[in-house]
Amino acid sequence: MGLGGYITQFLFPLLIAAKVTVQVSLGAFMFAIATGLILATFRYLLPIALIRLPIAVFVEIFRNVPSLTHLFIIYFGLAYVGIRFGSISSAIIALGLIGGATLTDVFRAGFEAVHAGQREAALAVGMTPRLAFREIILPQTWRVTLPPIGNYAVQLVKDTSLVAAIAAPEVMFTARNLVVTTFETSIIYAFAAGVYLLLCLPLSRFAKTLEQRMAIPR
What we know:
Number of helices: 8
Strand content: under 5%
Shape: flat
Order of helices and strands: HHHHHHHH
Largest sheet: none
Radius of gyration: 21 Å
């Protein structure tokens, strides 16, 4: 089989499957951003044990248990008790929760990186704690947290390969099926690697460019 045949038989199906990879990545990324920001905000604005303890437990569970375990619990375990999600929805929920745990600590560190004197100054001129948070602390937090968020986004795209385990028809699931039917292992996985590069390299470059544009002048 010539190169054209390999492209038609292997690369095109992988590119089609990349749409699912992008769908899962975007869904999980938005889920993770929302979860991480909300939980970190609660921890910052309401520093009481009743709030901090459940958030800390959530973060520890989702950061220290393998991602596949969470995928299986949401896809198979919840179905056992009558709560059913499709493979793509399960992937978005599981990866979003895992990312939310990671980004909770990222945003928390970002809040703490803003000098306490700025908050004190805002309160001194009559701002409420919530207004000071929204107008003074949060905008600076985005600048501080942008590099780790960008790194997380790239890692998330690569982590979508795990959802092949629950039959989500993304790149690695499609590649595995092609290997089973054709036994062209090397060329198929090489094409799969190329597809991930096509997805991750522009994303990495965009995150770097955005970081430079939002950099705080020294």
